[in-house]
Amino acid sequence: MSAEDQLPPDEPLDRRVTIGLAKIGIALKQQAWAEAGERGLTPTQGQVLALLRANPDGLRLRALAEQLGVTSATVSDSVTALHRKGLVAKQPTAGDGRGVVVVLTPTGNREAAAAAAWPDFLLEAVGALSPVEQATFLRALVAMIRTLQEKGRIPVARMCVSCRFFQPFQHDNPARPHHCAFVEAPFGDGELRLDCPDHSPAPVDQAAHTWEVFRSSTATPRRIP
Fold first, then answer.
1. CATH architecture of 13-121
2. Which of 78, 93, 100, 202 could link 206 by a cystine bridge, Cβ 3.0 to 4.6 Å?
3. Is 224 helix (H, G, I), strand (E, B) or coil?
């Protein structure tokens, strides 16, 4: 019997990738609880602070819930707790006497900086990958996130691939084949954005065509209508 015959049956590749992602997910969850617990916060409260830090003008409760992918009740409970701790404040929305937005207090801004930094523990692992591996991994993440978004599993992200300014494979340079019509500049897979503040949703037909071109590694440069 050969050594190859003695090996156990191999698991499908997609299952092995899923197992690997699950292990990373466990590490993220454990780190989230550890970091938040040290500051007397829950992971959701920490995520609220980090999200508000990225939106200094504040967000409504509904927007917070949508971007975090949780219920309005969950966000309301978290904001109430953060308000009690003096980390957030509620301000009236301009032009809407009944509407309010949640904003950070100075103390909350300091806590938010710490809350936004905890995923940095993954930087060491990602930094161990070569630039080519990182770009390939990012491209794969974009594809996975898009699929999860379409199935309603996670909130919609402001990614390049769903933006009307994104034009894949417009340049002959293999390192920077894509084009951003917003800044009129070429860029490569390693510069794809998962949450761009300048994102403008593309019409359905354009988004579908853009995705088809992007997913084709043999696509030739051509204009996206």
1. Orthogonal Bundle (1.10)
2. 202
3. coil
Task: Domain ranges for the chain, please list them.
Answer: 13-121, 129-215
Give the closest residue to 47 by CA, choosing from 101, 112, 91: 112
Q: What is the pLDDT of residues 40-95, one digit of tens each?
A: 888 888 889 988 998 888 999 998 988 888 888 999 999 999 999 999 999 887 76
Of 112, 114, 130, 10, the C-alpha closest to 52 is: 112
Distance CA(135)–CA(155), nearest Å, equals 23
For residues 171 and 177, is the Cβ–Cβ distance under 8 A? yes
CB-based contact 54:117 (threshold 8 Å): no
- Decide: 147 and 81 in contact? Cβ < 8 Å: no
DSSP string, 77-129: HHHHHHHHTTSEEEEEETTEEEEEEEEE-HHHHHHHHHHHHGGGGGHHHHHTS
